[in-house]
Amino acid sequence: MNATRLSISVLSLSLLAGISAVAQDKQKVGSSPRETVARPMTEKERKKKEEKLRKELETPYRKWLNEDVAYIITDEERTAFKRLQTDEEREQFIEQFWLRRDPTPDSIENEFKEEHYRRIAYTNENFASGIPGWKTDRGRIYITYGPPDERHHLHVPLRDVALPLPRRRGQRHHY
């Protein structure tokens, strides 16, 4: 029995010694700073990164083309703008675009540009319905033609017609 206890004690001590040695090795490995070496990008990854960067840089110009002037730019102007290669060319194009439409080129302000952006703001405030106001049919008409010449407010007495609430009141615009 003493021999059994002695062998169990020796096994336990050797096991503990082995565990502590492994723990010390792990501490040595964990304490040294790990060096990370970036693997070189493949051609496909490089092209994908360049394309993503190009799209990020084009975003303001894409917004200008597809949102700001979507209803007033001509097809020829749109095609010419899409062919431009540099941001400097795009900036010059945008400047010339607004200068061509300026009713008083000698003044500092571009009245057409100011009115255009005022119309966009008005449509977004007044015609939005789940989508921005400039994207609605009413918004497109308002941006293109300006405010209506006449407005007729339609009021249907509530007791005469049992229509859902949104259909009881409205406006009719004449251009």
Q: How much helix, percentage-wise, in residues?
A: 55-70%
General form: elongated
Low-confidence stretches: 1-13
List the strand order in the largest sheet. Answer: 1-2
| Average pLDDT rating | 77
Radius of gyration based on Cα positions:
36 Å
Number of strands: 2
Q: Strand-and-helix sequence, N→C?
A: HHHHHHEE
Number of helical stretches of at least 4 residues: 6
Strand content: 5-15%
How many strands, what sense, and barrel or not for the largest sheet? 2 strands, antiparallel
Class of secondary structure makeup: mainly alpha
Report, as a whole number of angstroms, the end-to-end distance.
Answer: 111 Å
Give structural notes.
Mean pLDDT is 77; it is low at 1-13. Helix 5 (111-126) packs antiparallel against helix 6 (137-145). This protein has helices at 2-31, 43-68, 75-83, 87-101, 111-126, 137-145; strands spanning 150-155, 169-174. Among the domains are: 46-101, no CATH class; 111-175, no CATH class. The protein has a two-stranded antiparallel ribbon with strand order 1-2. With 175 residues, the protein is mainly alpha-helical.
Describe this structure in a few short sentences.
The protein is mainly α and 175 residues long. It has six helices and two strands; from the N terminus they run H-H-H-H-H-H-E-E. Strands 1-2 form a two-stranded antiparallel ribbon.
